[in-house]
Amino acid sequence: MKTFQEKYPSVEFKLLQGGYEVNAAAVRAREADLGFISTDTAEDLEYDILYEDELLAVLPSNHPLAEKDIVSVKDLAKEPFILMDELGYSYPLAAFKDAGVQPRNLKLTVYDDYAVMEMVRQDLGVSMLYERILRGFDDGLIIRPIKERPKRNVAICWKDRKTLSLAARKFLEHVEDSNIFVFN
């Protein structure tokens, strides 16, 4: 956004905060011109994929699963689990379902990634979080890839490109041209 603001200083942004389903609903209702979503919530929206984000196992430093190089969803289902509530569709719960298991002990549900990390650090359970969230915040945690490699695609979406405001079209073009989100 900084480079866009430098190029178009008179454009004002109104940022709405919410989960991907909330963002998609705001775009559908034309309460927002553009939204950041997961492609799983895009049903009737147009979108450009910005990046792919993989779920990783998040373990306390003294946890027995930390001895493994790769952890399976079934391994995680046997442990006290801390769920990140994503205000709608849950990728960790979908990963459990796809593996044919349910978490045996859904210990805590929280609404903040960093709270999940702190609870895992305090040895309250294990979790799954996205690679991008964990970058730079993994001190005191053991991070392992998950055998099944659950992922999400994050995208920028809109209802109808032809009806976007000039500012929204320019921002969308800026995002598409600059690849600012494509840094896997």
TrEMBL record:
<dbReference type="GO" id="GO:0005829">
    <property type="term" value="C:cytosol"/>
</dbReference>
<dbReference type="GO" id="GO:0006355">
    <property type="term" value="P:regulation of DNA-templated transcription"/>
</dbReference>
<protein>
    <submittedName>
        <fullName>LysR substrate binding domain-containing protein</fullName>
    </submittedName>
</protein>
<dbReference type="InterPro" id="IPR005119">
    <property type="entry name" value="LysR_subst-bd"/>
</dbReference>
<dbReference type="Pfam" id="PF03466">
    <property type="entry name" value="LysR_substrate"/>
</dbReference>
<dbReference type="InterPro" id="IPR050950">
    <property type="entry name" value="HTH-type_LysR_regulators"/>
</dbReference>
<feature type="domain" description="LysR substrate-binding">
    <location>
        <begin position="2"/>
        <end position="177"/>
    </location>
</feature>
